[in-house]
Design brief:
Elements lengths: L6 E4 L5 H10 L2 E3 L6 H8 L3 E7 L6 H5 L6 E5 L8 H6 L3 E3 L6 H16 L2 H9 L2 H5 L12 E5 L3 H11 L4 E5 L7
Parallel strand pairs: 1-2, 1-3, 3-4, 4-5, 6-7
Helix pairs in contact: 5-8
Length: 183
């Protein structure tokens, strides 16, 4: 367990198993449990060396600047757009996140949603469950994914994983992003 002078400030609830591990191994302060966030922050400011947050919540400049001994912001998630990187850099605070943790799962879900949309899987499920086939006969045929044009906005890790899956459906994949891909 970390000493009293090295506390971890949790800015938001995290994925339960991750939070449990943090709490079992470190002296954690869950700021959301305190009615006055500012007072809580001021009372622990000198002891906090690490902050744990998630991509949906992040950390702002005011919080970074309120923690003079802050060394690291650990972000549970891929995105860092809710992290004030300029403030962290100015104050020598390391920022880390969790890239690649969910890349394949997000790409799988994207393809699942695409298939569900084009093939009208939710509508077909309702059609059968509501017994509509008894009075209306077969549900109308749906479209195919085969040979479609697919656009991917942002061909980073996740976008590329989605594009690779789309190729299995003989689609024409185009992308839009800030950097040209040579491969």
């Amino acid at each position: 367990t970390m000493s009293q002078s090295n506390q971890v400030l949790l800015l938001s609830p995290l994925y339960a198993p991750t939070q449990e591990t943090l709490e079992n191994n470190h002296d954690c302060i869950k700021i959301w449990e305190h009615p006055d966030r500012s007072a809580c922050l001021a009372s622990v400011a000198d002891q906090v060396t690490a902050v744990a947050t998630h991509s949906g919540f992040g950390i702002d400049r005011a919080t970074v600047e309120a923690l003079p001994n802050l060394k690291i912001v650990a972000n549970f998630g891929v995105g860092i757009d809710t992290i004030d990187l300029a403030a962290c850099t100015e104050h020598g605070v390391t920022v880390c996140n969790t890239p690649d943790v969910l890349t394949e799962e997000v790409a799988d879900m994207a393809l699942g949603l695409m298939l569900a949309s084009v093939r009208q899987i939710p509508q077909g499920d309702r059609y059968v469950r509501e017994g509509q086939w008894r009075k209306n006969g077969e549900m109308q045929l749906t479209q195919t994914v085969q040979g479609r044009k697919v656009g991917v906005v942002g061909l980073g890790r996740i976008g590329l994983a989605i594009a690779k899956r789309c190729e299995a459906f003989n689609t024409e994949v185009s992308y839009f992003g800030p950097r040209k891909k040579t491969d």
